[in-house]
Specification:
- The longest helix is centred in the middle third of the chain and has 32 residues.
- Helix 1 links the parallel strand 1 and strand 2.
- The strands form three sheets. The chain has a six-stranded parallel β-sheet, with helices on both faces.
- Helix 9 crosses helix 10 and helix 11 runs antiparallel to helix 12.
- By secondary structure, the protein is of the alpha/beta class.
- The chain has two domains: 195 residues, NAD(P)-binding Rossmann-like Domain (Rossmann fold); 264 residues, NAD(P)-binding Rossmann-like Domain (Rossmann fold).
- It is 45% helix and 12% strand.
- Bound molecules: 1,4-dihydronicotinamide adenine dinucleotide and uridine-5'-diphosphate-glucuronic acid.
- The site of 1,4-dihydronicotinamide adenine dinucleotide has 27 residues, from helix 1 and helix 5.
């Protein structure tokens, strides 16, 4: 570990022994971090280049859907612990510890991470940093980024030190994960930097005895991408098993259940289906692979390309199931898509498998109608070419196939008998293995899910048949019951 003689945090603004915190970048990560740090009792000032976002946050409105965050934002604004600004000068003057939370998306047309936002944030902040303080990177970065930024700060803001403190929160559980993380990782180059980070997180570590891993920059950066790569690999592993199950009419959900009962394997991140998406797992495994290539160890991570390919193949598989459901060609066929966000309890549609499948169906000529409880606005912006409905029933009306792609709880509550009266044909493709197949089959639906044999209806579908036929079928069904 590198050591430093700099007096980190000297000349601090800290009151009552507590450092003042700033957060740079107020997206999913930064807004959550700012609110949660204020909730822990710190005075927090957050900045973003997106002035609309800053105005909304300052007015008590979270610009995205994250359970529980609105309430905490409003409470901490009211308590005067949390403020938002567009001024980096003000941030530099205010803060003892500055958390970098800007985006590191995939570079267009390439696999690597785009570090330009991170460098722009340092460029905006560094000239105003006039006293000792600690800049803490939280964004997910290729290994080596922290060392490069530390070198920049040494020149552009002498007396200011860098640390790297990767974040592991999940969207949908962001508040809970921030206030009670599984572990904390501090990538530091000096003991004072470690001490400051320990004091910032003391309200958490004191309460929960949260394990703290102290490491050098490179190890801290690697922990983050290694964790996301492992999670992605687990999902693609079970989805690879789904592909094999499909070849022999075996059932991947039963297989996954049996695997999960082995404590060494565990059941988490072993849910097969349409695969992973979101603003992180896909871009992180690609950036990690690309960085390994640059470091001359690309051969160690070739499996991550396979993980990515298995994942993307699942999207095609769902389209194939829809094609089969409508009898061969999707051209002109109305298809209902339930779900647009990349996972439930989030309105994030970045690299969403649901929207990707909807777009593939649209590309194959289907007339696609998408419904999502929370992500419709984001979906409309990302895929304006699709049609959107304001309820599941509206999306399913007239559909020749219905595809469930995000496992929102409300989809589990749908009444399959009612939907059967609205749909033009009765195949439900449950790409997330989330519905009660028996209930849907009892209401006349053919239940199809990837990695499992198709299940025909327990009773024939009602609305498609003529009244006389229907009476006969009802009589048979009553006799069979
Ligand atoms: N979303 C998540 O659940 C998690 C994200 N991460 C990582 O955190 C980082 C941020 O991710 P998200 O919050 O999802 O991205 P995001 O895109 O939601 O937010 C990034 C924010 O940074 C702002 N920004 C860009 N350039 C800026 C600059 N020069 N100065 C100030 N603000 C600037 C943007 O306007 C935007 O509000 C990424 O590296 C991501 O991999 C890590 C763990 C969880
Ligand atoms: O770096 C990040 O941004 C974050 O990425 C993921 O969190 P997140 O993307 O919010 O969501 P996950 O719960 O990990 O789900 C990711 C995707 O995998 C899919 N998934 C998840 C689990 C599973 O068993 N199967 C499966 O297909 C989900 O539907 C979703 O599309 C990680 O879980 C977080 O620890 C990490 O901090």
């Amino acid at each position: 570990m590198r050591t430093s003689t700099k007096q980190v945090g000297s000349g601090t603004n800290a009151t009552a022994g507590r450092p003042r915190l700033t957060v740079i970048g107020t997206g999913y990560l930064g807004a959550t971090h700012a609110v949660c740090m204020a909730q822990l009792g710190f005075d927090v000032l957050a900045v973003d280049v997106d002035t609309t976002k800053i105005e909304r946050l300052a007015a008590g409105e979270v610009p995205f859907f994250e359970p529980g965050l609105d309430e905490l934002l409003q409470a901490n604004l009211a308590a005067g612990r949390l403020r938002f600004t567009s001024s980096f000068e003000e941030v530099a003057r205010f803060g003892d510890v500055h958390f970098l939370c800007v985006g590191t998306p995939q570079l267009p047309g390439r696999q690597n991470a785009d570090l330009s936002y991170l460098h722009a944030a340092v460029t905006a902040l560094a000239p105003h940093l006039r006293r000792g303080s600690l800049v803490v990177g939280k964004s997910t970065v290729p290994v080596g980024t922290a060392a490069a930024l530390a070198d920049r700060l040494a020149v552009e803001a002498p007396g200011v030190e860098l640390a790297w403190n990767p974040e592991f929160l999940r969207e949908g559980f962001a508040v809970e994960d921030t206030l009670r993380p599984d572990r904390l990782v501090f990538g530091v180059a000096s003991t004072p930097a470690e001490t400051i980070l320990r004091s910032v997180y003391a309200p958490i570590t004191n309460q929960y005895e949260t394990p703290v891993i102290v490491a050098d920059f490179a190890t801290a950066e690697l922990v983050k991408v290694a964790a996301n790569s492992f999670l992605a690999t687990k999902i693609s592993y079970i989805n690879a098993m789904a592909e094999v199950c499909e070849a022999v009419d075996a059932d991947v959900t039963t297989l996954a259940q049996a695997l999960s009962l082995d404590e060494r394997i565990g059941g988490k991140f072993l849910r097969p289906g349409v695969g992973f998406g979101g603003g992180c797992l896909p871009k992180d495994i690609r950036a990690f692979r690309a960085r390994a290539d640059e470091l001359g160890v690309g051969h160690s991570l070739t499996f991550l390309s396979e993980v990515d390919e298995i994942n993307l193949r699942r999207r095609d598989r769902i389209v194939q199931l829809a094609r089969t459901a409508v009898g061969g060609s999707l051209a002109g066929q109305p298809v209902a898509v339930l779900g647009a966000s990349f996972k439930p309890n989030s309105d994030d549609v970045r690299d969403s498998p649901a929207l990707a499948v909807a777009a593939l169906l649209d590309g194959a000529g289907a007339t696609v109608t998408v419904y999502d409880p929370m992500a419709l606005d984001n979906a409309r912006r990302a895929r304006p070419e699709l049609t959107y409905a304001t309820s599941a029933a509206e999306a399913v009306s007239g559909a020749k196939a219905t595809v469930l792609l995000t496992e929102w709880a409300e989809f589990g509550e749908l009444d399959p008998a009612e939907l059967a009266t609205l749909a033009a044909a009765h195949t439900i493709i449950d790409a997330r293995h989330t519905l009660d197949s028996a209930r849907w089959r009892a209401a006349g639906w053919t239940y199809v899910s990837p990695g499992r044999p198709a299940m025909t209806p327990a009773v024939p579908a009602q609305p498609d048949v003529e009244p006389l036929q229907r009476q006969v079928q009802e009589a048979f069904a009553a006799r069979a019951a």
